[in-house]
From TrEMBL:
This protein's name: Uncharacterized protein
InterPro entries associated with the record: C-type_cytochrome_biogenesis, Ig_CycH, TPR-like_helical_dom_sf, TPR_CcmH_CycH, TPR_rpt
Key words of the record: Cytochrome c-type biogenesis, Membrane, Repeat, TPR repeat, Transmembrane, Transmembrane helix
TM segment ranges: 6-26, 38-59
Region annotation Disordered: where it falls in the sequence: 216-243
Length: 355
């Protein structure tokens, strides 16, 4: 949900990708834009990464907002540049580079469905374009409530890595897809390929190293379980009762006026210092607030990663105006401090901050 490795790496990689797709468009638009100010692609290439870094820098740190709307002096320039780009693409729908730039821009400002649509246009024009394949796969996960990189996304990522074996985003996302599906050996292989490309001692490299350690632990557990099952075929399986985490969620009175009809409430628990996927999550109408739920292992996004496997978690709640789990500007949220499991009483969450 928030403060995840997925978003951190996406933020860091978006600058390089935007610049790559912006340069060809910049060359085409330079002459047309010379009299009207900064070229379109330059405006986007400069403003969007700055916006993206700011956005991802506050993800997981909603206390920096304290309910006060943020004023971005570059906002109007970005809106104007986007409008010009969209108008350009209406006139030139075969401009693959333009669609890629729009997709990267929409991804950076957290509009995943618009980004996905743009990448689909790019793929329609150029089915073998690596940036289009990787962008489509990433945004398809962002538009899903479970953030799964499903079959078609996984196929595109395999195709992208085959075409460009050193594509950092493709290697990272393909590893995430494989991890989600319990293919830990394959995830380890792709993340080990990624490590030297980004530098293991960099901040992003440390995140990848953490993911690698987790995948290796999961693989060892998977192998041990398979060995136990094969060595004792007649032994009846035994299971421990699944973990249960009761949660109560309320909305701060100061934010009651921000609740809109049709808003969705996401309640989740994530491992402290763990990988990006929540250990358990549930969705319900925000109109049900105040709400009481019990998070269980049955709500895990991956069977191998659930509440029973954790010792400390952070519990959070997010009210989404879009109905999507992907955080967006204007969403309301609240999170707990780290909590040691099991708990003896319900965890109380107050939604008291504006994203």
């Amino acid at each position: 949900m928030v403060k995840t490795a997925f978003y951190v790496i996406a933020a860091a990689m978006v600058l390089a990708t935007i610049l790559l797709v912006a340069l060809p468009l910049w060359r085409r638009s330079l002459e047309q834009s010379r009299r009207s100010g900064r070229p379109l692609a330059v405006v986007l290439a400069v403003l969007v990464p700055v916006a993206a870094i700011a956005v991802y820098g506050i993800v997981g740190q909603p206390s920096t907002l304290n309910g006060v709307p943020r004023q971005d002096p570059a906002q109007q320039q970005l809106v104007d540049a986007l409008t010009k780009l969209e108008n350009h693409l209406k006139q030139q729908p075969k401009d693959t580079q333009g669609w890629l730039l729009l997709g990267q821009t929409m991804a950076a400002i957290r509009q995943p469905q618009a980004a996905l649509d743009a990448y689909q246009h790019a793929l329609d024009n150029a089915p073998d374009n690596v940036n289009a394949m990787v962008g489509w796969a990433e945004m398809s996960a962002m538009t899903r409530p479970d953030h799964q990189l499903a079959d078609h996304a996984s196929d595109l990522l395999h195709k992208a890595v085959a075409a460009d074996p050193k594509n950092q985003r493709a290697l990272w996302l393909l590893g995430i897809s494989e991890y989600q599906h319990g293919l830990f050996a394959q995830a380890i292989d792709h993340w080990k390929t990624l490590q030297p490309l980004i530098g293991p001692d960099s901040e992003i490299g440390k995140i990848v190293s953490g993911q690698l350690r987790d995948a290796e632990q999961q693989l060892h557990g998977q192998q041990a379980q398979a060995t136990d099952s094969s060595s004792e075929p007649g032994k009846a399986a035994t299971t421990q009762p699944g973990a249960r985490l009761p949660v109560t969620v309320s909305l701060a009175p100061a934010l009651a006026s921000r609740l809109k009809p049709g808003d969705s409430l996401f309640i989740y628990a994530r491992a402290v210092g763990g990988p990006p996927m929540p250990l358990a999550a549930t969705k319900r109408p925000a109109s049900s607030l105040p709400a009481t739920v019990t998070l269980t292992d049955a709500m895990a996004m991956m069977p191998q990663r659930n509440l029973s496997a954790a010792t400390q978690v952070i519990v959070g709640a997010r009210i989404s105006h879009s109905g999507q789990a992907m955080p967006a500007a204007g969403d309301l949220e609240g999170e707990s401090a780290p909590i040691r499991l099991p708990v003896s009483a319900p965890v109380s969450i107050v939604v008291d901050k504006v994203d």
